[in-house]
Amino acid sequence: MKNINVAYIGYGERGRALLELVLEQVDAIGAVCDIYEDRAEACAKAVEESRGVRPAVYTDYKAAIADESVNVVMILTAWESHIPIALEAMRAGKAVALEVGGAYSVEDCWKLVRTQESTGVPFMFLENCCFGRRELMIKNMVELGLFGRIVHCSGGYHHDLREEIAFGVENRHYRLRNYLSRNCENYPTHELGPIARILGINKGNRMVSLTSTASCAAGMHEYILANKSDDEALINAEFAQGDVVTTVIKCARGETITLTLDTTLPRFYSRGFTVRGTKGMYEEATDSVFLDRQEDRAYDWSWVKNKVGNADDYAREYEHPVWKQFLEDGVRGGHGGMDYLELKAFFDALRADAPMPIDVYDAASWMAITALSKISIANGSAPVEIPDFTSGRWEE
Amino acid sequence: MKNINVAYIGYGERGRALLELVLEQVDAIGAVCDIYEDRAEACAKAVEESRGVRPAVYTDYKAAIADESVNVVMILTAWESHIPIALEAMRAGKAVALEVGGAYSVEDCWKLVRTQESTGVPFMFLENCCFGRRELMIKNMVELGLFGRIVHCSGGYHHDLREEIAFGVENRHYRLRNYLSRNCENYPTHELGPIARILGINKGNRMVSLTSTASCAAGMHEYILANKSDDEALINAEFAQGDVVTTVIKCARGETITLTLDTTLPRFYSRGFTVRGTKGMYEEATDSVFLDRQEDRAYDWSWVKNKVGNADDYAREYEHPVWKQFLEDGVRGGHGGMDYLELKAFFDALRADAPMPIDVYDAASWMAITALSKISIANGSAPVEIPDFTSGRWEE
């Protein structure tokens, strides 16, 4: 692809966060779209201010996709619309970059796969955490064999979102309605993406089954009582979404993955990224690397405390090449640079007609965790099979 | 009970670690026992050196229990013999202190409960971690309401035991045979005990179901290849026990508990004790307390790093009374003082004819997790009901 002209769909928080980085890397943003007119207009204004050219403005994504000037569709909308918009775009023969979220049904994930396969358009899943500095450094160390055979990984989306959820009506945010109506691992990909790449999921390995267990939902109600007690509707609302959802995934080669959704209780932010191998480990909680036989076994907290943050020492030798370069050139863009790197990876692959760094099989299998976890929770944590969206090609 | 005379059964590592503390607190150790004659003899010698009186020496636990001089039986043996010895002791009308371990069947746990109920003898489960300094401080903070409603707890037995297991024949250690033949959460109580007490398990709450998922078993084989390559039997052995077992428990009041068994991969020691409530949290990984609205929400590692170890600050105000006194008097005994406190709690209750701090219902429900996790793993992580060993009395 030579002349990248984007239909930019969705101008909520995420759309606003990425716009500048996208404008830097594309030839044009020919169309902008949001179901809210004011947002679509704000997006058009921002594009015009940057480029001097006013894009076409839409509130209907179908019209934006149909716009003949555009050949790439970026989807930065509410979770519910991700797959429908992606399907429409692929059917129109446009390349797709899809923001993260979970799927509402396994069938939706199959549609994503089938439509990409039948249309052959480039498709990338914008999982920025796959480009995180530590995530890539640890992937590098794993590939160098430093951790031995990887046996278990865990991660979580530990992010106190109570304010965002409670003010979801005012902010026109999709999380509120989702937390009221659904109980599932609703946002698995930030931690699962980097883990899946380390475990070779869909590339020699695959996820075969999961169980999900949800705690009660207590965090939002207490938050609303304390911070929004004048909101009668919310004071009396029952939230379906459990505060903490624990999902345990089994992989074809015997590895296990534990995911934790944890967004409605007080705490500090973490993705809890942890990688355990027969020769070593990394854990984000203490940002520490532990290599077998290079250090004494440690039994007391004072020893552990000395290890806190020692991953920085390993960075000197094992920083991922992408990040080495990035640090030299100067890190920029949101989320500590991950956003810039994911967009660059997408547009570079698009221009080079190269395979997409995070493809439709990754998207389908990661997003399906949400739909499958909902089934497991509804069935008392019963194990649920995870479909093989590659139809057997993962073994190749 | 006025004259405490102990039959001390089992003189392996644990028996050796506790003997001196027991000798301090009892009137006599009238009988010692180990299936290995040399160990029984060593125990007798140690008792004689301390007290000037040689105890009766047995290799058959039934004979030791039948010894008319003793009224208390302490069980510090291999996991497999815990419940049979406890049953024999209770049937003989002797008080029982039982070291920790998991059960081999749910029926064994029921036998423990029925036999204690029918004999009425004092029974205590020696879960020393219930007396841990941080565990008790956090329990204190929970009871003061500082963490709000507790929604989720997690913990693990993160302990690199590869050497102990690999040299199990030489050391006559029971872990080796267990790791060769069983795949389960084989040692849940160190983390579950303190969590169960915080959640009021068997005292207003109960555990209702669990799922367990085991990773492949790769750690032991690699360890043996590297460290015991002349051991033909072990080089060719297949270990049944997965390296990491994740168990998720659901409680009657909606709380969830996640347990991790993690004993055959390289890492530093931790019990991963974590308590999450609607108003605050504690996590052992960073030894940090986080209280809602008392601190800014934190998004970056530099902030988190500043919190590492801040639980010490809270100790000034919230140290558990038992530990305040212990620190004043001078902490002593193994495992950072926990061993001393658990034994003191047992002998104090025995002398005062008071309820046992950790009773047979705690023992049965905590030990049953092992047997139930085995069933879940064997059935592809299927959810398994956890029996109510109190027969409904947990609600009182």
Average pLDDT of chain A, rounded to a whole number, is: 96
Task: Please identify the oligomeric state.
Answer: homodimer
Rg of chain A, nearest Å: 21 Å
Number of helices of chain A: 16
What fold name stands as the CATH topology of the largest domain in chain A?
Answer: Dihydrodipicolinate Reductase, domain 2
> For this structure, what is the CATH class of the largest domain in chain A?
Alpha Beta
What is the strand content of chain A? 15-25%
Features:
homodimer; 396 residues; Rossmann fold; Dihydrodipicolinate Reductase, domain 2; 2 domains; 8-stranded mixed β-sheet; 6-stranded parallel β-sheet; 16 helices; 14 strands; 18% strand; globular
Model description:
- The structure is a homodimer of 396-residue chains.
- The first copy, chain A, is α/β, with parallel strands linked by helices and 396 residues long.
- The first copy, chain A, folds into two domains: 123 residues, NAD(P)-binding Rossmann-like Domain (Rossmann fold), CATH 3.40.50.720; 228 residues, Dihydrodipicolinate Reductase, domain 2 (2-Layer Sandwich).
- In chain A, 41% of the residues lie in helices and 18% in strands.
- Chain A is built from 16 helices and 14 strands.
- In chain A, the strands form two sheets. Chain A has an eight-stranded mixed beta sheet. Chain A has a six-stranded parallel beta sheet with strand order 3-2-1-4-5-6, sandwiched between helices.
- In chain A, strand 2, helix 2 and strand 3 form a beta-alpha-beta unit.
- In chain A, helix 1 crosses helix 15 and helix 4 packs parallel to helix 5.
- The model of chain A has no long low-confidence stretch (mean pLDDT 96).
